[in-house]
């Protein structure tokens, strides 16, 4: 999911972030599952932390 979040960010923002690693993750069960993920990614050679929120709705697949 973290790689998906970085890929989606790159598509939407026309950027070239490179996934590094997951720093922290938690989930919340609601109508589906919401994942809150802290990702380390490289932007122009500089490592930065990004927050991602991924909402998985299995009935929508």
TrEMBL record:
Residues 1-61 form the Cystatin domain. It comes from Sonneratia griffithii x Sonneratia alba. Keywords: Protease inhibitor, Thiol protease inhibitor. Pfam families: SQAPI (PF16845). One of its GO terms (molecular function) is cysteine-type endopeptidase inhibitor activity. Belongs to the cystatin family. Phytocystatin subfamily. The lineage of its organism: Eukaryota, Viridiplantae, Streptophyta, Embryophyta, Tracheophyta. CDD domains: CY (cd00042). This is Cysteine proteinase inhibitor. PROSITE patterns: CYSTATIN.
